[in-house]
């Protein structure tokens, strides 16, 4: 049986309870895959090597997104928007969950690390500002921990553009602002993280899940939401929006 990772009194289950609201178990071959991905960052800085390894191992998004790709028969051509150092996209590619990757980000050092790690693979990492401009056509848009960092208007605009760019589905890891103590804790962590990295101006504007869901349903997607916080006190959820399903 797939374990429900939230407790019975958890706000998520009273508001979102549905057959899809189950955390996905990580694939059994995850440790070997993480090893293969981290090996590709061997030439990167010590910080990047540590970041990539720790992020892949500890963030429940890694296992959940790889498992989702497997359950969906692969994500096909993936556009990873706000790809950072590209480790999640490369894990998808090496694990057979994607046929190709285009990663977009505005952070030059992260892109450099991603490009180097993706050498020889069907993966491209380009500089772009997600708040403007065209997006590459793809089967699946991956948007992990990015949306809430944009101003409100830019979030709406990006959602409309990803809905137009994705032929099959959107996979969004989102911050649920209405998840009780988890949301309060998550917000404190975001403020501390910004202070630590001198990014005081970056916004923390998580869109309420019902609004996010309604917006994508209006564009013709069938939306399901599942918790993506296993083992952490964070309010992270994984939203899958499938075109024309159901
Ligand atoms: C929290 S990180 C997540 C990185 C990656 N998705 C992951 O899961 O490892 C957010 C990323 O979004 C990027 N980002 C934020 N705003 C952006 C914008 N307007 N245009 C392009 N990239 C942006 C940042 O540079 C950063 O790499």
Notes on the structure:
The chain has 246 residues and is an alpha/beta fold. The chain has a single domain, classed as Rossmann fold, CATH 3.40.50.150. It is 40% helix and 20% strand. It is built from 9 helices and 7 strands; from the N terminus they run H-H-H-H-E-H-E-H-E-E-H-E-H-H-E-E. A 7-stranded mixed beta sheet has the order 3-2-1-4-5-7-6, sandwiched between helices. Strand 4 (138-144), helix 7 (152-165) and strand 5 (166-175) form a beta-alpha-beta unit. The longest helix has 16 residues, at 181-196. The protein is globular. It starts with 10 loop residues before the first helix and ends with a strand. Mean pLDDT is 90; it is low at 1-11. The structure holds S-adenosylmethionine. S-adenosylmethionine binds at residues 55, 82-84, 88, 105-107, 110, 128-131, 144-146, 149. The site of S-adenosylmethionine has 17 residues, from loops.
Separate helix tally: 9
Bound molecules: S-adenosylmethionine
Distance between the termini: 24 Å
> What is the C-alpha radius of gyration, as a whole number of Å?
17 Å
Shape: globular
**How many strands in all?**
7
What are the segments in which pLDDT stays under 50 over at least 5 consecutive residues? 1-11
Q: Which percent bin holds the helix content?
A: 40-55%
Return the CATH topology: Rossmann fold
CATH architecture: 3-Layer(aba) Sandwich
Give the rounded overall mean pLDDT.
Answer: 90
Assign the CATH superfamily.
Vaccinia Virus protein VP39
Indicate how many domains the architecture comprises: 1
Quick overview of this protein structure:
The protein has 246 residues and is α/β, with parallel strands linked by helices.
């Amino acid at each position: 049986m797939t374990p429900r990772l939230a407790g019975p009194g958890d706000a998520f289950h009273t508001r979102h309870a549905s057959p899809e609201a189950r955390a996905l178990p990580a694939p059994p071959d995850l440790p070997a895959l993480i090893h293969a991905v981290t090996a590709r960052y061997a030439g990167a800085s010590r910080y990047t090597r540590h970041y990539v390894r720790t992020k892949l191992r500890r963030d429940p998004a890694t296992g959940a997104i790889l498992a989702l790709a497997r359950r969906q028969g692969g994500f096909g051509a993936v556009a990873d928007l706000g790809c950072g150092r590209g480790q999640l996209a490369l894990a998808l590619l090496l694990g057979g969950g994607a046929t190709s990757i285009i990663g977009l980000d505005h952070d030059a050092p992260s892109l450099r690390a991603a490009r180097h790690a993706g050498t020889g693979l069907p993966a491209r990492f380009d500089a772009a500002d997600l708040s403007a401009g065209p997006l590459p056509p793809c089967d699946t848009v991956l948007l992990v921990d990015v949306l809430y960092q944009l101003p409100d208007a830019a979030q709406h605009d990006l959602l409309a553009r990803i809905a137009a760019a994705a032929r099959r589905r959107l996979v969004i890891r989102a911050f649920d602002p209405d998840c009780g103590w988890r949301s309060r804790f998550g917000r404190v962590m975001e403020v501390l993280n910004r202070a630590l990295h001198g990014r005081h101006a970056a916004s923390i504007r998580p869109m309420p899940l019902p609004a996010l869901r309604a917006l994508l349903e209006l564009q013709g997607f069938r939306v399901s939401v599942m918790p993506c916080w296993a083992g952490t006190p964070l309010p992270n959820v994984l939203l899958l929006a499938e075109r024309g399903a159901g």
